[in-house]
Amino acid sequence: PRTAAVIPAAGRGVRLGPGAPKALRALNGTPMLIHAVRAMAASRAVSLVVVVAPPDGAPEVKTLLADHALPERTDFLVVPGGATRQESVKLGLDALPPGIDIVLVHDAARPLVPVDTVDGVIEAVRDGAPAVVPALPVADTVKEVEPGPPGAPEPVLATPERARLRAVQTPQGFDRATLVRAHEAVVVGEGATDCAGLVERLGEPVVLVAGHEEAFKVTRPLDLVLAEAVLARRRA
Ligand code: CTP
Ligand code: MG
């Protein structure tokens, strides 16, 4: 089965603070997006990478891909993204050619995911799971609250048992037809924060496999410090 990776990279990166779109910011001199593209292309199973660029940034992203060394066995496509991650992923899916039967969806903001994690997800889809998500146990205890106005104390509603919670990462891997169906079934105003959440709504099974600490998402400024430290350690 042929596998493609869709990389949503169209976000602004509001939580990272002012500057270029998050995916285009440098980590140790190389744009985060290039690290993420290389992480997907590092898997020998991935024959195509579709980058979903900021809505007005597709030409810039095409230039970036042309200017960086990437594996020759992999094809690359760039499409403009949308206003939400979910829309951006949908635009990436729409660009997939026939003949692809497994789709990975990977955040550009997780530039350091190891290839073993990528291969583990692909293998689980090949073994028959329609939706596969890398995940880790959570370190912090998590509270459910009644959200209030910013800054106001928030009443706690419940404390789910931590041992039963997992923090999910990407790449999430899917049987292509299942993922397309999940996106087509979306009801306006009832999106999900990840693709697997859409598949769950179809009633299809979603399974978790081992994630990796280095697949963390670069979200806030401190995450940039951590990402650069991980890269420095890899080069050492
Ligand atoms: N993303 C996207 N299109 C959007 C919004 C997000 O392709 N309209 C992508 C981001 O580029 C990122 C991934 O979805 O690679 C995960 O989103 P997140 O980490 O939330 O990134 P941003 O939305 O850019 O950050 P923020 O929420 O802080 O603005
Ligand atoms: Mg976001």
UniProtKB/TrEMBL annotation:
Q: Supply the alphabetized keyword list.
A: Isoprene biosynthesis, Nucleotidyltransferase, Transferase
EC main group = transferase
Q: Which PROSITE patterns match?
A: ISPD
Pfam (any one): IspD
Residues with site note (Transition state stabilizer): R15, K22
- Keyword Cytoplasm in the entry? The reply is no
InterPro entries, per database record: IspD, IspD/TarI, IspD/TarI_cytidylyltransf_bact, ISPD_synthase_CS, Nucleotide-diphossugar_trans
UniProt record similarity statement: Belongs to the IspD/TarI cytidylyltransferase family. IspD subfamily.
What's this protein's name? 2-C-methyl-D-erythritol 4-phosphate cytidylyltransferase
Tell me which species this is from.
Streptomyces alboflavus
Q: What is the lineage of its organism?
A: Bacteria, Bacillati, Actinomycetota, Actinomycetes, Kitasatosporales
